[in-house]
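Subject: Predicted fold for Myb-like DNA-binding domain containing protein, 167 residues

User T.R. writes:
Posting the sequence so we have a shared reference for the thread.
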Amino acid sequence: MTMDDISSSDSCLQERRKKSVIPWTSNDDEKLLNAIKKYGKENWKSVADCIPNKTRKQCRERYYNCLSDGIAKKPWSKEEDQMLMDLQKILGNKWTEMSKSFQGRTPNSLKNRFFSHLHPEYRKKLRENKVNRTPDDKSEKNETKPPKGPSQKSAFVRVKSSKYEIM
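User M.O. replies:
I've generated the C-alpha cells; pasting them so everyone works from the same file.
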C-alpha cells in the first residue's frame, strides 16, 4: 500500500464520517448555489468544502433533485398522477426513462411521488376490489401448474399475467 492509497483511504473515511442526516436549510441551499457558481457543477469536492456537514454526493443530489433550473416546484396535477401510474404499469420502476415524459420532474421526484402518494392508493383500490379486470381475464386466478416429474423440479408456479385497470 502506497502513501497515496493511505491518503485516499483516509479521505474516504473522512467523507463517511462527515455524512450525517442533517436536513438542508435555506442557508445551506444558498451556500450550495454560491459554491456552484464559484466552482461549477463538476467540482463537487470544492463545493462540499463550502457547506459544513455535507458530502460531495449530498451536494450533487441536492442540486440536481431540488435546486437545478427547470425543476417543477408546482403541485402535482391529476393528469401527471395518472400518467405516472400508467407509465409505472408499462415500464416498472424505470424512473429515469419515465422522467423523459414529464416536464420539470426528476426521476427521484417521480419515485417519491409514486411511493408516497400513488402506490398506497393503488394497493388500497386493489384490496377494496375497485379494480376493473379486462374482459379477457376469465377467472380470479389464471394459474397453471407445471407438469410433475423428475425433469421439472421447479418450486415456482406458472401464472398468466392479468391486466388491471384502475377506475
